[in-house]
Amino acid sequence: MEENKDTAKAGAGAAPEEHHGGKFMAGRRAFLGAFAGCIGALGAGLVGVPLLASFTPVQRGKPEPAILNLDDIPKGGSARGVYAGYSFMVFNRKSGIEAISLKCTHLGCTVKWEPAKQIFRCPCHDGWYNKHGVNKGGPPPAPLEHLAYKIVGSKLIVGGA
Ligand code: FES
């Protein structure tokens, strides 16, 4: 009967040879480890940077005022704008101009103007306000914010006044 030389060596008390690739495998493991580290760092950067950016305030310092053309808001009319990252509406009423923030005072959802009912309704928890932004129903604890404005020539400058 013929015996395999390796088996014969192992059987003779010699330690079996390990074939794990030696230096080649060690280099490969190091490369794969470094590659995985790079991929992990890239992934952390892709997720982490936008996540951290979302924690920083949208604007620093005093927000820029919104500038509207008075010609676009005839008596009895309205217009929309954005100030400090939130929408607002301007109404040119008999009593004068009102600039009302559309940020719900409950949890900050954007309220919707319902012209037929002359109310602002919040779609989040069904809070509602009258046409002057006074909270009338649902969870909002306070009226909608009235924004300061000034008129300069033919421009209505809302916020930052
Ligand atoms: S956020 Fe407007 S009612 Fe809750």
Structure description:
Strands 5-6-7-8 form a four-stranded antiparallel β-sheet, with no helix packed on it. It has a three-stranded antiparallel β-sheet with strand order 1-10-9, with no helix packed on it. It has a three-stranded antiparallel β-sheet with strand order 2-3-4, with no helix packed on it. With 161 residues, it is an alpha+beta fold. The protein has helices at 5-11, 22-55; strands at 66-69, 78-83, 86-93, 96-101, 112-114, 119-121, 128-130, 135-137, 149-152, 155-158. It is elongated and about 90 Å long. The chain has two helices and ten strands. The chain has two domains: 20-56; 66-158, Rieske [2Fe-2S] iron-sulphur domain (Rieske Iron-sulfur Protein, 3-layer Sandwich). FE2/S2 (inorganic) cluster (FES) binds next to loops.
Top CATH class of the largest domain: Mainly Beta
Largest sheet: 4 strands, antiparallel
CATH topology of the largest domain: Rieske Iron-sulfur Protein
CATH architecture of the largest domain: 3-layer Sandwich
User: What is the string of helix and strand elements?
Assistant: HHEEEEEEEEEE
Question: Approximately how much beta-strand content do the residues carry?
Answer: 25-35%
Instruction: Using the CA coordinates, give the radius of gyration.
Output: 34 Å
Structural class of the secondary structure composition?
alpha+beta
